[in-house]
């Protein structure tokens, strides 16, 4: 069996608010996308990498990754799409059909531990066709009717049943391709795009399994997250 990783890096990073796309923002001397690529490859289970690049920056991303001594697997860089879902689909479209397992990882989670990558990959190889890392939710979560200043609470789900999910999310290539195809056929609109790949698999009615996530794989969305990641890197 061989594993392909699709590294999504085409987002603009609007919530981070920098003047360059989030994947190219510096963390401890290297851009987020390079940290993520090094950790995927460093896990030892990734045989090839497809990276989705922000508009007009395909060559910049390719130079960065292809010249890096730690990125020792073949790399293909493609233009991303208008949503994360469309970017993953663009990556899948160029994926070599010989790979049985596909891991989809966000450049926005640059400090993913190699162990976590291996855990997800191993669970797919062991026969679980869709595997997602997840962490227990520690806050009490309220369901609301979304509003502006004051929102109405309509429920409190039992948090013992909730997991906050991360990436990499791992799939057999066949299932991931089927889930994206169905996702495209179901909705034409960007607003309806899934925020993760497992959601597309769930919509097919196929099982998704959770393995233990890792706080170090936290997503960088805001400046505060970036500062936290810088501290994590110093440890
Ligand atoms: N059209 C898009 C949108 C997002 N992503 C990637 O998907 C991951 C998760 O997205 P998110 O953290 O939401 O990144 P952005 O979309 O860049 O952030 P924002 O919503 O703040 O603009 C990121 O690695 C991002 O680069 C992508 O490849 N293509
Ligand atoms: C895929 C993901 O990282 C799982 O937590 C997340 O859903 C991506 O988040 P986004 O900010 O909505 O793109």
From TrEMBL:
PANTHER family cross-referenced by the UniProt entry: 2-C-METHYL-D-ERYTHRITOL 4-PHOSPHATE CYTIDYLYLTRANSFERASE, CHLOROPLASTIC
EC number: 2.7.7.60
Site (Transition state stabilizer): 15, 22
Pathway noted in the entry: Isoprenoid biosynthesis; isopentenyl diphosphate biosynthesis via DXP pathway; isopentenyl diphosphate from 1-deoxy-D-xylulose 5-phosphate: step 2/6
Gene Ontology terms for molecular function: 2-C-methyl-D-erythritol 4-phosphate cytidylyltransferase activity
Protein name per Swiss-Prot or TrEMBL: 2-C-methyl-D-erythritol 4-phosphate cytidylyltransferase
Keywords: Isoprene biosynthesis, Nucleotidyltransferase, Transferase
Superkingdom in the source lineage: Bacteria
Entry-linked InterPro entries: IspD (IPR001228), IspD/TarI (IPR034683), IspD/TarI_cytidylyltransf_bact (IPR050088), ISPD_synthase_CS (IPR018294), Nucleotide-diphossugar_trans (IPR029044)
Marked site: Positions MEP for the nucleophilic attack: 159, 219
First-tier enzyme category under EC: transferase
Coiled coil: none
Catalytic activity: 2-C-methyl-D-erythritol 4-phosphate + CTP + H(+) = 4-CDP-2-C-methyl-D-erythritol + diphosphate
């Amino acid at each position: 069996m061989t594993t392909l990783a699709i590294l999504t890096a085409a987002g603009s990073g609007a919530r981070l608010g920098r003047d360059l796309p989030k994947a190219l923002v510096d963390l401890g001397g290297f851009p987020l996308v390079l940290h993520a690529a090094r950790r995927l490859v460093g896990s030892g289970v990734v045989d090839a990498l497809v990276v989705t690049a922000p508009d007009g920056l395909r060559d910049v991303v390719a130079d960065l990754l292809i010249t890096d001594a730690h990125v020792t697997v073949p790399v293909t860089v493609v233009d991303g799409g208008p949503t994360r879902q469309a970017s993953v689909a663009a990556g899948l479209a160029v994926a070599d059909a010989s790979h049985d397992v596909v891991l989809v990882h966000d450049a926005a989670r640059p400090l993913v531990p190699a162990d976590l990558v291996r855990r997800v990959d191993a669970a797919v190889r062991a026969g679980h066709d869709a595997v997602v890392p997840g962490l227990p939710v520690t806050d009490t979560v309220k369901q609301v009717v979304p509003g502006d200043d004051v929102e109405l609470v309509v429920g409190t789900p039992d948090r013992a049943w909730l997991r906050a999910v991360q990436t990499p999310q791992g799939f057999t290539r066949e299932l991931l391709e089927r889930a994206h195809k169905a996702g495209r056929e179901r909705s034409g609109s960007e607003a309806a795009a899934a925020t993760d790949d497992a959601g597309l698999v769930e919509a097919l009615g196929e099982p998704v399994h959770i393995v233990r996530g890792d706080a170090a794989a936290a997503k960088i969305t805001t400046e505060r997250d970036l500062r936290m990641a810088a501290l994590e890197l110093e440890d």
